[in-house]
Amino acid sequence: MVEIRKLTSAFAMPDRRVVIHKDLDLTVERGEVMSIVGGSGSGKTVLLRQILGTETPAAGEVRIMGKPRESLSRRGASSRVGMLFQHGALFSAFSVLENVAFPLRELKTLPPKLVEEAAMVKLQMVGLKASDADKRPSELSGGMIKRAALARALIMDPPLLLLDEPTAGLDPDSSDGFVNLLRSLHRDLALTVIMVTHDLDTLFELSTRIAVVAEQRIIVTGSPREVIAFQHPFVHDFFPGERGQRAMELLREYPFAI
């Protein structure tokens, strides 16, 4: 589904050039849930944005379904990739329905009535009610904002879904409900998912594979059990003490077969 080869990410600062990734490689197979973990500033969200196409790498290649990312038209990219941003990124002046419908309306290829009907279907798919459609984002709870943003990410029926900290800011009950929703959608829609998360429960409950970003590259990819067992200082530091113990408990709890 996604191939990243020899990718370099760099940003120009007033006094220097900062390299985030160097010769980074990653392959994401169709149908899996690949989670990307790493330290702060390791460029996890940068990778998502480069797959989405909102940022361009300094060097290397990103291919989606066999096609170079830069060769995809706006419509082609929208039909292949959806993204759930960390804080939802809903338009505050739009209603929930208008937010979800926005990508379809921008393409201007469907009658307004059909666009509205498609948006309502997606709202119901993520567990929101018809009565929520006319609300503004300011009237929604954190969990409802996540669900509305997820509906918008899915409005074009993309086979690839990107998730940036999907459960960040949610209370435990809302987080559990959202993880269950993601698991169901992954199964029912045959989605491929690439996720960035710091939450261990989310990481181990959803991931089929994990990629660890450190030293400007992917140092290991594998099943959750394989990654925890990988002998590298960063992996050891990422799952230390009680966090490592919790990780092992989750390994026993979750079967990793979604």
TrEMBL record:
InterPro entries in the cross-refs: AAA+_ATPase, ABC_transporter-like_ATP-bd, ABC_transporter-like_CS, P-loop_NTPase
Source taxon at top rank: Bacteria
All residue ranges annotated as the ABC transporter domain in the record: 2-240
A GO term, aspect molecular function: ATP binding
Keywords: ATP-binding, Cell membrane, Membrane, Nucleotide-binding, Transport
Presence of keyword ATP-binding: yes
Spans traversing the lipid bilayer: none
Pfam families with a match to the protein in the record: ABC_tran
Keyword RNA-binding: no
Protein name, entry field: ATP-binding cassette domain-containing protein
